[in-house]
Amino acid sequence: MNNRVVIIGRPNVGKSTLFNRIIGRRYAIVEDYPGVTRDKIEAKASWGGKEFIIVDTGGLIPETKDQLIREVKKVVENEIPNADVILFVVDGKDGINPLDEEIAKYLYPFKEKVILVVNKIDNLKDEKIVGEFYSLGFENLFPISAEHGKGTGELLDEIVKRLKEDKVNLIEEGIKVAFIGRPNVGKSSLINAILKDERVIVSPIAGTTRDAIEVPFKWKDKSFILIDTAGVRRPSKVEYGIEFFSVGRSIKAIELADICCLVIDASEGPTRQDKRLGGLIERRYKGCVIVANKMDISPWSKEELEAIIRKELFFLDYAPIIYTVATKGKGVEDLLECIDIVYNDYTKQHKTSFVNRAVHKILSEKPPPRYRGKEIKVYYAFQESTKPPTIILITNYPDAWKENYKRFFIKKLREYLNIKFAPIKLVIKGREND
């Protein structure tokens, strides 16, 4: 992909702050704590009439034995050959750090692409130490304050001067699929298996993913936006700070998604937290696929596990179940097929005449209980919208519809409207609301 700008540097030098400044919104989590960004995050940006892809990478620590940082380094190594511009960010307040020197050696073969960005230069006093950074061996040096925006305009002028194309292609529209689940159930592994690429960092350390990462993807000529989220733990276990924002983004991902893949650990079965997450999905009327991952270490057969899931997650009765082993790529094609089927139901639109026939068929088979001795009537019905399919009923006694009858009614509606794998939102109104 052309016009690709990659931000690189050791942890806590302000890469995510610069990323957010360039794209003009708070996308990457920013926290005064080393190693907050671990996955690669990318977005479209523009300056001076030119578009480009800006990529925020995890903090790079060369030659470390730490498994997580090795994975971050691997992501960075994959990015450098594809970059048109490399923004090597250093901390102007700290001065040159030994890690900066290590990274500089690593980047030196690509020096024609490198712009050295000396961040956190907020005043004249800070500017006095900028000159020492030329010893890192790069000619193009820009002192900036990403937090306050100082110098970023000049930096962007230099970036776009080096770009060949005016426009870039980044899939920004498509079926939005959020992968939701507790920490360490395999959400990132599933996305990597779908992409056949290590786009999202995978680690056995719980809590590796902190941002909600949006990854464009095409399959069978269909566009998807895959959203990897931070694993959501019970509220009492969530401390204010990085994880607080991560959980908020996971919930926001549910709200923004068309389809939620609720990933559960097949070796444990559904937990109380899985039920809570399932409840969030159901209450927001989202299409859902239940993904039982790690089937290779499950103590149950598929049939046994299905019975357990259906009992524990009974309120997601419309959600199909897919069994996967993400680390081996097993079940991934089935999952994509399933997402496509659910999305078709989630976006199904029916004519008013068809909806009315279905409604009156259900009422003739089993009418709602009488209200104060009077018959409950439905004057007419229609489908108002999709995502989710929303059915409006106009009735004489809207308050008389009991919850268990409504559940029965929705179940039959899904059958008659052939919406088997998506929720239906039922809105009951009186004539005065028409």
Provide an overview of this structure.
The protein is of the alpha/beta class. It folds into 3 domains: 4-161, P-loop containing nucleotide triphosphate hydrolases (Rossmann fold, 3-Layer(aba) Sandwich), CATH 3.40.50.300; 175-345, P-loop containing nucleotide triphosphate hydrolases (Rossmann fold), CATH 3.40.50; 352-433, GMP Synthetase, Chain A, domain 3 (2-Layer Sandwich). 31% of the residues lie in helices and 21% in strands. It contains 12 helices and 15 strands. The strands form 3 sheets. Strands 2-3-1-4-5-6 form a 6-stranded mixed beta sheet, with helices on both faces. It has a 6-stranded mixed beta sheet with strand order 8-9-7-10-11-12, sandwiched between helices. It is elongated and about 90 Å long. The model is unreliable at 26-39, 199-211 and 230-246 (pLDDT under 50).
Average pLDDT works out at 82
Question: What's the count of strands?
Answer: 15
The global form is elongated
Order of helices and strands: EHEEHEHEHEHEHEEHEHEHEHHEEHE
Number of helices: 12
Structural class: alpha/beta
The largest pleated sheet is described as: 6 strands, mixed
The tally of domains stands at 3
- Evaluate the radius of gyration: 26 Å
Distance between the termini: 52 Å
Query: What is the percentage of strand-forming residues?
Result: 15-25%
At CATH level 3, the topology of the largest domain is: Rossmann fold
Write out the CATH superfamily name of the largest domain.
P-loop containing nucleotide triphosphate hydrolases
Strand order within the widest beta sheet = 2-3-1-4-5-6
What ranges have pLDDT less than 50 throughout 5 or more consecutive residues?
26-39, 199-211, 230-246
The level-1 CATH class of the largest domain: Alpha Beta
Percent of residues in helical segments? 25-40%
Per CATH, which architecture of the largest domain? Answer: 3-Layer(aba) Sandwich
